[in-house]
């Protein structure tokens, strides 16, 4: 069995515990993937354990902001936690979108803890052919 190790993972987890959960004024970062698929850009955010109602998506000019909050699960009084590694609090990510993207038609889907945004490429940014017209011949400049 091959195991990949990340020497900084434990350090990141420890720093997260010491700094506490993210707040609305100082949110923690959320992992994401971004790629182009055909005529749209796709951005996927990992938000496991977050309800769809706790996700806030805003676009202002070309700045996309995604905020989410994961709250602790209420447990019975006789429950004693042995290990807790899943971060709680507020998570946020801001992305500057290119002017070539159509921010008026962003689609958002949330499934299995993954928020997926699909941002279409604006028509003016798509490649197009330019035809060459037949000229009327050479013109003489007289002076």
Q: What can you see in these coordinates?
A:
By secondary structure, the protein is mainly beta. It is about 10% helix and about 35% strand. The chain has one helix and eight strands, in the order H-E-E-E-E-E-E-E-E. The strands form two sheets. It has a four-stranded mixed sheet with strand order 1-6-5-4, with no helix packed on it. A hairpin with a 2-residue loop joins strand 2 (about 30-35) and strand 3. The longest helix has 11 residues, at about 10-20. It is elongated and about 100 Å long. The mean pLDDT is about 80.
At a glance:
This protein is mainly β. It contains one helix and eight strands.
Ordered list of secondary-structure elements with their pairings:
Layout: H1 9-19, E1 28-29, E2 32-37, E3 40-46, E4 55-60, E5 63-70, E6 89-96, E7 107-111, E8 114-120
Parallel strand pairs: 1-6
Antiparallel strand pairs: 2-3, 3-8, 4-5, 5-6, 7-8
| Shape estimate | elongated
Number-wise, the strands total 8
Helical segment tally?
1
- Using only C-alpha atoms, the radius of gyration works out to 24 Å
Order of helices and strands: HEEEEEEEE
Q: Roughly what is the average pLDDT, rounded to an integer?
A: 81
Poorly predicted runs of 5 or more residues: none
